[in-house]
Amino acid sequence: MTTKQNNYCVILAGGKGRRLWPCSRDRYPKQFIDFFGSGRTQLQQTFDRFVRILPRENIYINTSRKYLDIVRGQLPEIPMEHILAEPIHRNTAPSVAWAVHRIMMSNPRANLVVSPSDQHIVNDGDFRRNVEDGLQFVEANDALLTMGVRPTRPEPGYGYIQKGVYTGANGIYKVQAFTEKPDRSFARMFMDSREWYWNTGLFLANARYFRQSLSKVLPSLLHTEERKEKITTIEAEDNFMQENFPLYPNMSLDYGVLEKSDNVYVMKCDFGWADLGTWHGLYEAMSKCENDNVVVDSDVILENATDNIIKLPKGRLAVINGLDGYIVAEKDNVLFICKKEDSSALVRKYVNEVQMKKGETYV
Predict the structure, then answer these.
(1) What is the mean pLDDT of the chain?
(2) What is the fold of 3-277?
(3) Do the beta carbons of residue 95 and residue 222 sit within 8 Å?
(4) Rounded to an integer, what is the distance from CA 203 to the centroid of its chain?
(5) Over the chain, what HEC string results?
(6) What integer pLDDT is reported at residue 222 of this predicted model?
(7) What are the pLDDT digits (tens) for 166-220?
(8) Could you tell me the residue ranges of all domains in the chain?
(9) pLDDT tens digits, 2-60
(10) Is the pTM of the predicted complex or chain greater than 0.85?
């Protein structure tokens, strides 16, 4: 049985959140916003979820240095030495490598679950069971474990995992293949095959195996044997990272490690999941009102309008007639109206275009 004191969580909260533009902005991205008017932001809800699974003192937050004050304001219970504030954005592989090194300084026997900060989990009880089973698996096995959920629609904005041979342990299979953001026709084939699962972005491994896997692609980030003698304190490690982190590649954990390893497994999970990083993900995750519209904590009057998602600032009223399948989102100085289908690529396109033509004020 896994020793709870050896179980750790790293919450990734450093992203810019541009796929939910204009409500998510570079200076205050989606993970720090209470999108649903629940009283808790996405980051806080993720923290709340893991506090029920493992010791509070074993939770670490990875973020950007420019968001450090926001994280400290939203999670004052997290000690400073458990917040890894990167000086520059470098994707998930360097982020996880730093967290692995930090945690192993205090507990070389740690088992880690790495979690995004912007997910919707339907059933917390099933989620807890799946995470606990996964931590038990990686404690007993030197392996990388991903968590997959069965697709409910042909979503081209998600990553997909194909299951291979069954291990016989808690719905865990060897991974056959990864595919990132297929086109809609392939996504439908994946869904119909029942062999492919959505990649939730939840990754588990024991710290030793994480370090071993990451050192193949990021050797300098995990320090050479000579450097280890000099970096024995959190202060020294933090100083080293602030100076050297910009030198590391902009590499995702999926691409840099998982897709290149032949020792990756996927657990079939049934906790109900949605990526809250996209407008379409938000639409799918939320309950629908009349005519399949989703109104996110906003004041609207709808007539002859179907299949839309609407998010407006407090104090604004929208009257919408004759709209079908659109995103209507307003924040500060930007109003965004766009077809909902395949919106992830369109949002990225428009954010880049606005940044080039209008400058940072609108991004």
Answers:
(1) 90
(2) Spore Coat Polysaccharide Biosynthesis Protein SpsA; Chain A (3.90.550)
(3) no
(4) 10
(5) CCCHHHEEEEEECCCCCHHHCCCCECCECHHHCCCCCCCCCHHHHHHHHHHCCCCHHHEEEEEEHHHHHHHHHHCCCCCHHHEEEECCCCCHHHHHHHHHHHHHHHCCCCEEEEEECCEEECCHHHHHHHHHHHHHHHHHCCCEEEEEECCCCCCCCCEEEEEEEEEEECCEEEEEEEEECCCHHHHHHHHHHCCEEEEEEEEEEEHHHHHHHHHCCCCCCCCCHHHHCCCCCHHHHHHHHHHHHHHCCCCCHHHHCHHHCCCEEEEEECCCEEECCCHHHHHHHCCCCHHHCEECCCEEEEECCECCEEECCCCCEEEEECCECEEEEEECCEEEEEECCCHHHHHHHHHHHHHHHHCHHHC
(6) 53
(7) 988 889 999 998 888 888 888 888 888 888 999 999 999 999 999 999 888 776 6
(8) 3-277, 288-358
(9) 578 999 999 999 998 888 999 999 999 999 999 888 899 999 999 999 999 999 999 99
(10) yes
Amino acid, res. 33: I
Query: Residue 118 corresponds to which tokens in the numbers above?
Result: 């912007």
User: How many Cα atoms are found within 13 Å in the side-chain-facing hemisphere of 339?
Assistant: 4
